[in-house]
Amino acid sequence: MNESTPRKRLSREESQAQTRARLIDTAQQLFVTNGYGGTSIRDIADRAGYSQGAFYSNFASKEEVLLELLRGHMEAEGAQLSKILDSEGHAPEQIFEELQTWAATLNHDADWCMMSIELQLHANRSPTFATKYQAVWDAHRGRLGGVVGKLFAALGRTPPADPEELAAAFMALTHGLALQSMGARPDPSGRLILVFLRGLIASAGLASVTR
Amino acid sequence: MNESTPRKRLSREESQAQTRARLIDTAQQLFVTNGYGGTSIRDIADRAGYSQGAFYSNFASKEEVLLELLRGHMEAEGAQLSKILDSEGHAPEQIFEELQTWAATLNHDADWCMMSIELQLHANRSPTFATKYQAVWDAHRGRLGGVVGKLFAALGRTPPADPEELAAAFMALTHGLALQSMGARPDPSGRLILVFLRGLIASAGLASVTR
Amino acid sequence: MNESTPRKRLSREESQAQTRARLIDTAQQLFVTNGYGGTSIRDIADRAGYSQGAFYSNFASKEEVLLELLRGHMEAEGAQLSKILDSEGHAPEQIFEELQTWAATLNHDADWCMMSIELQLHANRSPTFATKYQAVWDAHRGRLGGVVGKLFAALGRTPPADPEELAAAFMALTHGLALQSMGARPDPSGRLILVFLRGLIASAGLASVTR
Amino acid sequence: MNESTPRKRLSREESQAQTRARLIDTAQQLFVTNGYGGTSIRDIADRAGYSQGAFYSNFASKEEVLLELLRGHMEAEGAQLSKILDSEGHAPEQIFEELQTWAATLNHDADWCMMSIELQLHANRSPTFATKYQAVWDAHRGRLGGVVGKLFAALGRTPPADPEELAAAFMALTHGLALQSMGARPDPSGRLILVFLRGLIASAGLASVTR
DNA sequence: CATGAATGAGGGTTCATTCAT
DNA sequence: AATGAATGAACCCTCATTCAT
């Protein structure tokens, strides 16, 4: 229990965490490649080098991995966006530039978007899953809504619709574009999203509060 | 094929066509409700009132029904856009109004959107299907791009991006929103789409070339 | 459709019935040997020479075969007993003799009794199964109750308890004895059952209705 | 194992015994409720508040718990009968009354009966278990046979069959009735058993040998 | 053309058991 | 002694598809 040998410590918990991590990784790869429905637990376990039982020792069901994956992804995305908008002193142009950089990364995220679509479809069809999914989704929607609101505030303008609705619309746009451009290169998604964002801002009235 | 008995002549071919049509209809309903992967051929045949064998007498595989649906999709979309496109001399406000009407129908067209998403998802995973799907999609994209271009031209403004790209983006937005709001009432999709469209117009520079 | 070739006719329905019959037979053998819980559908299908799918083409579930089996057995048993009691003119001694003969066959029926016990256990634990089981069981209980009533009537005596209850008690005795004597030879079950029946008759008061 | 610290001395052994006892108790509850086959070791361990490993530290297999339960069964039955047997000089009415009391407890003893049935069922399929079970059963049968013999002797009558066989038959009747009336209220088992007993006595000839 | 019984592969899930900790 | 992650086999069931009728 004290530390003397530097290697092979924490075996029990460590190896458990490792198994879990490997299963999650493998699941993500396969979900992205073959879709949620096209991926069997056998596939995941086999490719990760474990038995099917190992999967069930770590997750109650296929849905659970999916939710874990989703949560992680959405939180990461939220954090990423918050970082851009939270820095108070930024000039509008700077914010735009950073958003542009972020939007560019979306191009590499098309796989994730595909999964998101499959997830939504699954949620629309499985009531039990829908509840859990809704929680994750609402949290994400709220976070993004906050980011959108902050952006308009920073620009001294009134959003042309409820910020959360706008955020959801941007998610919809992003996912829809990902669906279209699977495999198409170069993917104009990131650029288009900013075009729409600029449009929204251009059409927004000046905020009544003097900046 | 030659005519001798005056009654019930086309019976065989007709009834075959009817079988086929019923199977296609049923398949679409089920694909929308349960997804492509969640729909079995037994489901389709049973609900349509036929045997599984009848299905295979009309289609080589589940994918083939999807192709037939794609064909229907294509025709429906073509007809829809023709209405907007055919009105050559329309004033900008009129075009805008027609787009608004079109956007409003989207609310009631969620089924078609879902079907479209299923089609795209499947195309992303089946190379043989992808080719055929791409052709339909490109045609539709082109047509819709024409409408967008015409709108901006009529307004005397320069589109902030390739009209076809903008058209595709609107399709993406529409589909993405439909996915989000399956079952949610009231569905803000139509309104949001117009908010985005207005934004785009607001951010468009005045066209330099009068033409 | 008319009969000319003596062999291989009725192929479709016949072969279907054959498959069903073979599966039922095999299921019975295995249920008796390994118990209901110890018999898998794989086992049944494999041993009958079919695929698992073939099983599901003929039965909705393992429970369904069980019920079919049970029904057939109970009906046969009821018919057997009715035959003994229905012949009006028999003298009491003759009835007894025939019952003795019948009881002797019970010895060879121990396997069936075992299954019956497992069935009851299963019914006590599966509400969905319980309903269907209850119907079969009640019918059998009613039939046997009728036989018991008739026997006492023929002897001009009043049964010491509700005939249906007595019938159920005899079923219980039979099953309980079968449970005990699995494998023990010679099995005294049949003889003991008659000993109890004679006791019941001996303790029964004379019926008030003069015969 | 040697004593030095006065407190918590037997702690280890004691706690092990406690673990074992708790597992046995839990197992019995679950066997009765869900059956032997319907109870998993995980169920037992979980519900008892231990790990699966703890189970295997105490028992080599699921069957071994069953053996332990059998031992308990044996002791309980032995004690039960001792009460009846020990009263040597009792009058027939008294014995009869005691049997009546015993029969009445059976109504509330359905759990034991179910357990007994599970034991017998398992014995019928596991040769290794059967041997041990047979010993317990034979002892019990002998003891109960003694009671039956004594009853008839006290009544000055000849039993209509080997007392041990009659005893076994009563056990069979009891178990069979318990199986039928699991959950059914009111349970006529106790009453029915006495009806049968009275019948047996009624049909018994007067003992020729005074002895 | 239409039937639907039968196939064979694969789906998600559970279980008794093992073993490094 | 006790843990519980991991195993591997088995379980019930569903599916797209075939083929004799």
Q: Report the principal-axis shape of chain A.
A: elongated
Q: Helix and strand succession of chain A?
A: HHHHHHHHH
User: CATH class of the largest domain in chain A, anyone?
Assistant: Mainly Alpha
The most extensive interface between chains reads: C-D, 40 and 40 residues
Query: Number of helical segments of chain A?
Result: 9
CATH fold group of the largest domain in chain A: Tetracycline Repressor, domain 2
Rg of chain A, Å, rounded: 21 Å
Could you give me the name of the CATH homologous superfamily of the largest domain in chain A?
A: Tetracycline Repressor, domain 2
Protein name (chains A, B, C, D): TetR/AcrR family transcriptional regulator
DNA-binding region (chains A, B, C, D): 40-59
Domain HTH tetR-type (chains A, B, C, D): 17-77
Keywords (chains A, B, C, D): DNA-binding, Repressor, Transcription, Transcription regulation
Task: Walk me through the structure.
4 copies of one chain form a homotetramer. Chain A has 211 residues and is mainly α. Chain A has 2 domains: 1-59, Arc Repressor Mutant, subunit A (Orthogonal Bundle), CATH 1.10.10; 63-202, Tetracycline Repressor, domain 2 (Orthogonal Bundle), CATH 1.10.357.10. Chain A contains 9 helices and no strands. Chain A has helices at residues 11-34, 41-48, 52-58, 62-86, 92-106, 110-125, 127-154, 163-180, 189-202. In chain A, α4 runs antiparallel to α5 and α7 (127-154) packs across α8. Chain A is elongated and about 60 Å long. Chain A starts with 10 loop residues before the first helix and ends in a 9-residue tail after the last helix. In chain A, 32% of the residues are buried. The model of chain A is unreliable at 1-8 (pLDDT under 50). Chain C binds chain D through residues 34-35, 37-38, 114, 117-118, 120-121, 124-125, 160-161, 165-166, 168-169, 171-177, 179-180, 182-183, 188, 191-192, 195-196, 198-204, and chain D through 33-35, 37-38, 117, 120-121, 124-125, 130, 137, 160-161, 165-166, 168-169, 171-177, 179-180, 182-183, 188, 191-192, 195-196, 198-203. Chain A binds a DNA duplex (21 and 21 nucleotides) through α1 and α3. Chains A, B, C, D: Residues 17-77 form the HTH tetR-type domain. Chains A, B, C, D: Keywords: DNA-binding, Repressor, Transcription, Transcription regulation. Chains A, B, C, D: This is TetR/AcrR family transcriptional regulator. Chains A, B, C, D: InterPro entries: BetI_C, Homeodomain-like_sf, HTH-type_TetR-like_transc_reg, HTH_TetR, Tet_transcr_reg_TetR-rel_C_sf. Chains A, B, C, D: It comes from Janthinobacterium fluminis.
